[in-house]
From TrEMBL:
Gene3D superfamilies noted in UniProt: Aldolase class I
Annotated protein name in UniProt: Fructose-6-phosphate aldolase
Principal location listed in the UniProt entry: cytoplasm
InterPro entries for the chain: Aldolase_TIM, TAL/FSA, Transaldolase_3B/F6P_aldolase, Transaldolase_AS, TSA/FSA_arc/bac
Keyword field: Cytoplasm, Schiff base
PROSITE patterns reported for this sequence: TRANSALDOLASE_1 (PS01054)
Compartments where located: Cytoplasm
Length: 218
């Protein structure tokens, strides 16, 4: 499973990259706004900066919700760098646009996916990635991991090539469950990635090794 980081914060991206396990980055308008990236030029430059930091797929989301607008914005984003993946919302014009981008060799990430039916449509349109939002599904009382499992099964039996990019990750346990359920990629906040490092027995064991190591050095 590939590891993407879900942020527009450059120091968090650098920290995950320095770990040596980072395969890509996803952003969205809320994450860009959180970093106070304002104005078209600043937004485009921010994407270029991220592309220069991480050699992997970088999702950049369109703001338009109509076919013509999505195509115009997507072409501009894709022209920024070969690693840009155009992130398109799961709406009717979004599906039409994903089909257009697929036919024109532009990679896409179909976002805001909450059902298997939506994931089937995204794959039929040729999306490179489909992003089920598992945390938001959990928040609403359903089971996000069940959806990953269901999409994984459907894509396997149907031979669909779209990659499942599990999004809206809240915890390290979400990442583990996504790996088990068949996600190809997990995009997570830095805190969830770092949570995977932690186990109390590791801390206790290391403290003992450090203590005993002192006895070896006199
Ligand atoms: C997906 O690509 C989105 O950027 C993101 O995972 C949404 O997560 P949230 O539900 O924590 O906002």
């Amino acid at each position: 499973m590939q590891f993407f980081i879900d942020t527009a914060n450059l120091s968090e991206i650098q920290e995950a990259f320095d770990l040596g396990i980072l395969d890509g980055v996803t952003t969205n308008p809320s994450l860009m706004a959180r970093e106070k990236v304002v104005g078209k030029e600043a937004v485009l430059n921010h994407y270029i900066t991220i592309c220069n930091m991480v050699d992997g797929d970088i999702s950049a989301e369109v703001l338009s919700t109509d076919f013509d607008g999505i195509i115009e914005e997507g072409k501009e984003l894709a022209a920024l760098h070969p690693n840009i993946v155009v992130k398109v919302p799961m709406i009717k014009d979004g599906i039409k646009a994903i089909k257009w981008f697929t036919n024109n060799g532009i990679k896409t990430n179909c976002t805001l996916v909450f059902s298997a039916g939506q994931a089937i449509l995204a794959a039929k349109a040729g999306a490179t990635y489909v992003s089920p939002f598992i945390g938001r599904i959990d928040d609403s009382g359903w089971d996000g991991i069940d959806l990953i499992r269901q999409i994984s099964h459907i894509y396997t039996v149907q031979g669909m090539q779209t990659k499942i990019l599990a999004a809206s990750i809240r915890t390290g346990n979400h990442i583990i469950a996504c790996a088990e359920a068949g996600a190809h990629v997990c995009t997570s906040p830095l805190s969830s990635i770092l949570a995977l490092l932690k186990h109390p027995l590791t801390d206790i064991g290391l403290a003992k090794f450090v203590e005993d190591a002192k006895k070896m050095s006199n």
